[in-house]
Write a structure and sequence with these properties.
heterodimer; A: about 325 residues; mainly alpha; ABC transporter involved in vitamin B12 uptake, BtuC; two-stranded antiparallel sheet; 14 helices; B: mainly alpha; 2 strands; globular; cell membrane (chain B); transmembrane helix (chain B)
Chain lengths: ~325, ~290
């Protein structure tokens, strides 16, 4: 537990001090997105990596958060913080309700059902023009305010978003190392065995689904208030797949791995701007190569690789001696 | 137009799109029964069928009758490569890894098609005249008859293959119990490969026959694939008649929904049905519930 605390402290310190090293509006803006993606990836990882339940529709919760906050605070003039809280609770409740039938499904069927759910929500964003603005999007969403402080610059947004990320990481790390976290791992490894040992697998799965959806909704609210504009393509099937890629690349069941995945997949497209149309090919190839050669993700794959290389060196050395 | 004629119109066009869903759904079921994998790249074979035919006709100036078999052949080759390069190395992996790898494959195929061709939508010429035929007040394009005819032939062939040929019977044996099938001398790995070959061939042909009606582009595979999967789910993942009925039900409901309710929500209808079936009758409309093996 102490080790976890130190890891978290180092992580938090790096995040807080990062603006001293990296500056400039463009980079700050990119890092804000890294933060939002980290929240989403951590949320999906809680479900996929810990409880072993796949979701191909998480972009829907992200979108519901973004549209919910945007519409309530703009069309209905709600206080943005209130809108964010209410939307998070509503989305969490919604996920809890559909969690019962949807998480009864397993493996491929669960993947398809969540995918179907995601697409239905996406279609509603596009078609309910009177409320969502349809394909042309929804604009004029206010920035968040805290007393005299208005979050309207990239640096301010950086601290806003990352303080949420830090909270969310702390919550997740704690959860993963608690009794509930151990129960999740038991469900992941052998659900029937876990149930026999007295773990209420069904309820736990639904609860983590709801929690995961809630974190996504909060990330969505932040996105809406930071961008002040939302449009359906940011919440489509591709985004769900992108989130999945982040989690898989970082490493299933590793909170910091999700951060790594989010960082990599947000920065790479920025640096690879010159090959803009190739990025989809790149994602697909990366997903396949990673699942075949590095099923544990970067957090486990890189140390393994390192060990293999040093192991080879030692063997060579032994042969010479 | 009066309501009766209108309904007939929706019914007829629904049946022909339903036939396409049925063909794609059967492709899903064949792979699922042989391997236990839901192949998320199934829709990409459908896209490849249409896009390859177009490519062969426009760039290589082949006539339609030559382009179609060649396109099916090429798409089948892609299916074969996909199984060898992506699925076989992962045979023992968890369902989640398999879902992820087939998604990766589908993104890769889609992305490469976008780069090789373009992002535009293209029309394939219809197989015969474009002159619509009047049936009891409803206008029907001849292409609808091509779709229905080819689907009937394909389903017949499929039925014959699975019940009258050695390979077909061997594949069925693998779907009941791969280990037992291996023990009696069936090469299970070859049967898995064969299932990908058949699905890719059927999927690509479905993509070709529908392309003159609905146009084709690098990304048509996503929706068509998902709806084919809905058909297979309604049919309880059967590679026979139940999935065909599933496809037809879906096609007709969608066409009625689009005509009578709203065309914008047309795609949502399929997914609402998918979710309802998965929640209420995961074994399909016609199946009996299975007890879970631990």
């Amino acid at each position: 537990m102490k080790k976890e605390l130190i890891k978290y402290a180092v992580f938090a310190l790096c995040i807080l001090l990062a603006p001293l090293v990296f500056s400039g509006n463009y980079l700050m803006n990119v890092l804000v997105f890294v933060g939002i993606h980290t929240m989403l990836a951590v949320a999906l990882n809680l479900l996929l990596g810990y409880a072993g339940q796949i979701s191909l529709g998480h972009a829907a919760f992200f979108g519901l958060g973004a549209y919910g906050s945007g519409i309530l605070s703009t069309t209905y003039n709600w206080n943005p913080w209130l809108a964010m809280t209410v939307v998070a609770l509503v989305v969490g409740g919604l996920a809890f309700a559909i969690g019962f039938p949807i998480l009864k499904l397993k493996g491929h069927y669960l993947a398809m059902a969540t995918l179907g759910m995601g697409i239905i929500v996406y279609i509603v964003f596009n078609e309910w023009v009177a409320i969502t603005g349809g394909p042309s999007g929804f604009s004029g969403i206010p920035n968040l305010e805290l007393g005299p402080l208005v979050f309207d610059s990239d640096l301010k947004n950086y601290y806003l978003v990352w303080s949420f990320v830090l909270g969310c990481v702390l919550l997740s790390v704690n959860l993963a190392n608690s009794r509930i976290g151990r129960a999740f791992r038991a469900i992941h490894d052998a659900e029937v065995a876990a149930r026999v040992m007295g773990v209420n697998a069904r309820l736990l799965k639904v609860q983590v689904f709801a929690l995961s959806a809630m974190i996504c909704a909060i990330a969505g609210s932040l996105y809406a208030h930071v961008m002040t504009f939302v449009a359906p393509p940011s919440f489509g099937f591709n985004i769900s797949v992108e989130l999945l890629t982040m989690v898989v690349i970082g490493g299933l069941g590793s909170i910091y791995g999700s951060f790594l995945g989010a960082l990599l997949l947000t920065l790479l497209p920025e640096f690879l701007r010159f090959m803009h149309d190739y990025d989809i090919v790149f994602y697909g190839g990366l997903l396949m190569v990673m699942t075949i050669f590095m099923p544990g993700g970067l957090v486990r794959g890189i140390p393994d690789l390192f060990r293999k290389i040093t192991g080879l060196k030692n063997k060579k050395g032994g042969a010479h001696a | 137009m009066e309501l009766g004629n209108q309904l007939l119109q929706y019914l007829l066009s629904g049946l022909s799109t339903g036939a396409i869903y049925a063909l794609i759904g059967i492709g899903f079921s064949i792979i699922y029964n042989a391997t236990g994998i839901i192949n998320f790249a199934q829709g990409e074979f459908v896209m490849l069928g249409g896009m390859l035919t177009l490519f062969l006709m426009e760039t290589l100036k082949l006539p339609l009758w030559a382009a179609i078999p060649l396109a099916v052949l090429l798409a089948t080759l892609v299916g074969l490569l996909f199984e060898r390069l992506a699925i076989r190395p992962l045979r023992k992996a968890s369902p989640i890894s398999l879902v992820i790898i087939t998604i990766g494959g589908s993104i890769l195929i889609r992305g490469l098609s976008m780069l090789i061709w373009d992002k535009d939508t293209h029309a394939l010429p219809p197989f015969s005249s474009e002159e619509p035929i009047m049936i009891a007040g409803a206008t029907v394009l001849p292409q609808h008859f091509w779709i229905l005819g080819i689907t009937v032939v394909l389903i017949g062939l499929n039925k014959w293959f699975f019940s009258h040929t050695i390979s077909g019977k061997a594949m069925r044996a693998c779907s009941y119990n791969p280990r037992a099938a291996g023990l009696v001398g069936i090469d299970v790995r070859r049967m898995v490969l064969l299932s990908f070959v058949i699905s890719a061939a059927m999927g690509s042909l479905a993509g070709i026959i529908v392309a003159p009606l609905t146009m084709t582009s690098y990304d048509v595979g996503v929706m068509l694939g998902l709806k084919g999967f809905c058909a297979a789910i309604i049919g309880g993942m059967s590679s026979g008649i139940p999935t065909v009925i599933g496809g037809l039900i879906l096609g007709v409901l969608e066409s009625l929904g689009a005509g009578l309710i709203s065309s914008g929500y047309k795609d949502a209808i399929a997914f609402v049905i998918l979710l309802l079936i998965l929640f209420i009758r995961p074994q399909g409309l016609f199946g009996k519930p299975e007890s879970e093996r631990v």
